[in-house]
Amino acid sequence: MKMEIGRLRDEPGEAENFDFQFYPAESLEDCEMLTPVHAAGSVTYGGNEFLLDCRLEAKARLKCSRCLAPVEQDISLDFNEEFDEEEYPGEDAVVDLEDVSTQLWVTSIPMRVLCREDCKGLCPVCGKDLNEGECGCPKDSVDPRLEALRGLLDQ
């Protein structure tokens, strides 16, 4: 969504509100958008800069960091951004709110989510989901590359 902001110079302190939805243009790995991102806020001219105040909200499906199970999560982000008026000269100055919102949205996606606090993850040997029960793999097996260190524990 593009917003003409140049006319705000005529009325410093007056806010121009916006409310729109979008799907992020870039595909996010391990993140499926279940709803569009809802963006709502305002742009105000503060004398020598434009001030953007915005809230972003959406629902997404992510993968648990331990067991890879799907996790639906509500994500929201409040942000403020300043734009120097020199970057937006003239009465016909336009800011692309969707572009700014998309950039900030991508950085708000959690890097790690858990399906539940006590998630046991996957067995590193056979890959079974340990939340569903034990897998039967030996618990005392050591990575062969680290076997030489076992001798140090005995000393």
How is the secondary structure organized here?
Elements: E1 2-4, E2 15-22, E3 31-33, E4 37-45, E5 49-63, E6 70-84, E7 94-96, H1 97-108, H2 150-154
Antiparallel strand pairs: 1-7, 2-4, 3-5, 4-5, 5-6
Structure description:
This protein starts with a strand and ends with a helix. It is elongated. The chain has 155 residues and is mostly beta strands. The chain has 2 domains: 2-119, no CATH class; 123-155, no CATH class. The strands form 2 sheets. Strands 2, 3, 4, 5 and 6 form a 5-stranded antiparallel sheet that branches. Strands 1-7 form a two-stranded antiparallel sheet. The protein has helices at residues 97-108, 150-154, and strands at residues 2-4, 15-22, 31-33, 37-45, 49-63, 70-84, 94-96.
State the end-to-end CA separation.
67 Å
- Sketch the major β-sheet: 5 strands, antiparallel
Number of helices: 2
Report the average pLDDT across residues: 86
Q: What is the SS-derived class?
A: mainly beta
Task: Estimate percent helicity.
Answer: 10-25%
Tell me the total number of β-strands: 7
What general form does the structure show?
elongated
Task: Please indicate the percent range of residues in DSSP E strands (runs of 2 or more).
Answer: 35-45%
- Which spans of ≥5 residues are poorly predicted at pLDDT below 50? none
- Whole-number tally of structural domains: 2
Order of helices and strands: EEEEEEEHH
Radius of gyration, Cα only, in angstroms? 24 Å
